[in-house]
Amino acid sequence: MTGKYFSYISLLGAALSLMTACSKDGDYTIPTPKNELQNDCIKRSLGPNIVGINIEFAYAMAIPAAKGKLVSAQVVASIPGVQVNPGDKPNSATYLQDSSFYTNGSGVDVPIKVGDRSVTKDGANVVTFTKDTNAVTLRYFYRIPEEARGKTVSFTFSATSSNGETVTYKSGPYTIAKMDMALNLLPTNNNKCYLSVADMKLYTAAEAAANPDKIDLVYLYRNLAVQFGHALVAPAASKDYLPGVTLPANVNRDTKLSKAWNVQDFHLAGLKYGTTFVDDVDFEQRDMSTSPDFALGLKEEAGVWVETGDGQYRAYIFVNKLDNTAQSARISIKRYKVK
Amino acid sequence: MKKYAIIASLLFIAALMGSSCKKEKPIDEDGLLITTRAECYVSNFELLGADFQTVRSKAPVIDTVACTIKQEVFFGTDLKNLWPQFTLVTDAKLDPKITGKVDFSDLANPKTYTVISGNRQVRKTYTVIITVQK
Question: Do B49 and A259 touch (CB under 8 A)?
Answer without folding.
Answer: yes
